[in-house]
Design a protein that fits this description.
7 helices, 199 residues, globular, mainly alpha
């Protein structure tokens, strides 16, 4: 990887991580009543823009990536955009507007299903990748992510059982799996010289 390509990858990773952090920060500010709903919707442009920037840059510089990696990045960009939109819809209509019944169930399911889609998209990357070396990197990355998420879930679960810590919402475990994917990518880079899906 050339120095220019390395800088481009670093910018993409920084933008992607920043989009998630800014989205979580915005959600915290909104739910703590530090900002109103209108301001939250306006500021939501920031994480969405960062995410779009990260994926557009990844796709633009993806000439060295195989078709499976390109499809993965495209699917991930669409799914994450859908996740952010449906999350804010659920927060607005259920929490703020008091929507109940079947519509509330649907609104609550959409962000969960879109988030779960990330795991299926990663699985599709493994299945569709033709290069055995990169397939091995993805499997390794997925195993590291699963190990991180399951270890934390098991430890926290026992701490919860014995009333040492407070219960945690279940959606944090797949979130930690995604953090594990990032850890796996860094582990791949350190051992094999490439992150994997962004070559």
């Amino acid at each position: 990887m050339t120095q220019i390509e390395s800088k481009s990858v670093n910018r993409c990773l920084v933008a992607a991580v920043s989009s998630v952090i800014s989205a979580l920060g915005l959600l915290f500010l909104w739910k703590s009543d530090a900002i109103n709903t209108t301001t939250a919707y306006i500021l939501a442009i920031v994480p969405v823009s960062l995410m779009v920037f990260a994926f557009v840059r990844s796709l633009r510089g993806a000439s060295r990536n195989g078709p499976a990696a390109k499809r993965y990045l495209t699917r991930l960009a669409i799914t994450m955009a859908f996740y952010l939109i449906t999350l804010f819809m659920a927060e607005h209509f259920i929490e703020d507007m008091g929507v109940t019944g079947p519509l509330a169930v649907l609104l609550a399911l959409l962000p969960g299903l879109s988030f779960a889609g990330v795991i299926w998209i990663f699985g599709a990357l493994i299945v569709e990748e033709q290069d055995e070396f990169y397939r091995m990197l993805y499997v390794r990355q997925g195993l590291i992510a699963t190990g991180v998420a399951f270890t934390l879930a098991a430890v926290w679960g026992f701490l919860e059982t014995y009333k040492i810590v407070e219960p945690v919402a279940a959606f944090w475990w797949p979130t930690l799996w995604c953090v594990g994917i990032a850890i796996g990518a860094v582990a791949n880079k350190l051992k094999y010289g490439t992150f994997g899906e962004i070559r």
